[in-house]
Amino acid sequence: xxxxxxxxxxxxxxxxxxxxxxxxxxxxxxxxxxxxxxxxxxxxxxxxxxxxxxxxxxxxxxxxxxxxxxxxxxxxxxxxxxxxxxxxxxxxxxxxxxxxxxxxxxxxxxxxxxxxxxxxxxxxxxxxxxxxxxxxxxxxxxxxxxxxxxxxxxxxxxxxxxxxxxxxxxxxxxxxxxxxxxxxxxxxxxxxxxxxxxxxxxxxxxxxxxxxxxxxxxxxxxxxxxxxxxxxxxxxxxxxxxxxxxxxxxxxxxxxxxxxxxxxxxxxxxxxxxxxxxxxxxxxxxxxxxxxxxxxxxxxxxxxxxxxxxxxxxxxxxxxxxxxxxxxxxxxxxxxxxxxxxxxxxxxxxxxxxxxxxxxxxxxxxxxxxxxxxxxxxxxxxxxxxxxxxxxxxxxxxxxxxxxxxxxxxxxxxxxxxxxxxxxxxxxxxxxxxxxxxxxxxxxxxxxxxxx
Length: 452
Ligand SMILES: [Zn+2]
What we know:
This protein is α/β, with parallel strands linked by helices. Helices cover 42% and strands 14% of the residues. α8 (184-187) links the parallel β5 (180-183) and β6.
């Protein structure tokens, strides 16, 4: 208890010290798809989520230039430039104009600039800070633009590419231009005086593994964040701007996987903690903003009851994608001999069904029918979302975990509701008047002076 009181007191002292000075170090965290429900579900699950204690909190609208429901590139561009554009464009308005990003403004004033993400280094959110293309799927162009940009540090799972291109082409290109390219934490070291691209130890992955599935030693977002802070602080004493994206909150919510989602929010909070540790060393000069580009899934909690069951979510040990991969692997090894008992054991082990989570007879009948369809009748029916495909038994099992945990998703796409923003540190109170996503970068430019 004493420890907690001291920690809270220390936070208050930090808060009261903050405000007057111009921020030198700006951290911008974007939870992709992280609405209020995603953040609150993580809080219900873990008991605490660090950024939800920040002193300045509010909501921002996320509408794009042509839709109430934004996509990640229009939202990323709004958060990076303060300009609304149409969905699927990135850093470019319909007339082909490219608004400057806050990273570009910071760089022009001599600050270090970096981006880090748990998905591809040229996926929509990070690319919004250095890229300008008519369509977000022009991955080869975005990879080239990153290499040719003035971004000092960029980290992500890999280079996403167009048809016929390979990540290695862009790794080679980056090295030819004198950029240091590292793969994973074992290889990474902070260098001085050179630009850096930091990829996963397994760059064949389109995105880092879900936090819920991650094994020891696999690259994680906090590795990238730690590398970014080390690099930017040691190279740019004038100050720096760092954007960190929790990219897979969105993936989990597109897949309607509540347990994977709360683990991803905590994964982002782990990176926020590194910024908070830095803030404690530089309390008068550090500004930390945590927000989201949009909400995904129409996610809510308390569905059908007054109580959540975070323990039910805790009994889920793998993501929906890994569960369907495990069922597929079982079918590969046992061919047609996969019994109902094999499936039941798997669902028990990986999701806690018939264990922590009770399964009544009616629900068991639903599962056995789906088992028969999938395995005995070899039905190829799949449930497809933006980032993955799963068999229908997997879908039903994960939906059941969600439902019994009293969480639910309305759909598998983005929603148009406002998202939260949490701010701490130097000039944090200036963010009280941010009500739209475009207000955040404008306020960053005004409090730092980078826009002048
Ligand atoms: Zn998004």
